[in-house]
Design brief:
alpha/beta; seven-stranded mixed β-sheet
Length: 125
């Protein structure tokens, strides 16, 4: 019989965090996409639209992931109180938005962002 082990994320480390106005976040995510095309998707959870970039998959990073630690090199977000499946820009670029609020880790991440957004962003200036 196969043994299946669930090993959820224990820690998320964010190395750089940036908050944007909603319109600027949309521009950031879609400016390099040719008109009429579809941009890579971003995530939405509990009133926040966001995206993250991980670190390269080096041996150390993979080992950390196997130990439940996720590294975000960059985390960008903006307020978006009401969920929509996508946003279309004036140049007809579509930005798909995935509702990830069904995931407890994402809800905890966004709760942390809300609580720490001013403190963490002020400490970097």
């Amino acid at each position: 019989m196969v043994r299946i082990v669930y090993s959820p994320i224990q820690e998320i480390k964010i190395y750089e965090m940036a908050e944007y106005q909603f319109s600027d976040f949309i521009k950031l995510m879609t400016d390099n996409i040719p008109p009429g095309n579809i941009s890579p998707a971003v995530k939405w959870c509990d009133g926040i639209i966001f995206m993250s970039t991980g670190l390269p998959s080096t041996d150390d990073v993979v080992k950390a992931q196997m130990n439940g630690i996720i590294h975000y090199a960059w985390f960008a977000f903006a307020d978006m109180p009401i969920y929509k499946q996508s946003v279309e820009t004036s140049s007809k670029v579509i930005l798909p938005i995935i509702d990830v609020s069904n995931n407890a880790i994402n809800r905890e991440l966004i709760r942390w962002v809300r609580t720490n957004r001013n403190t963490e962003l002020l400490n970097t200036k």
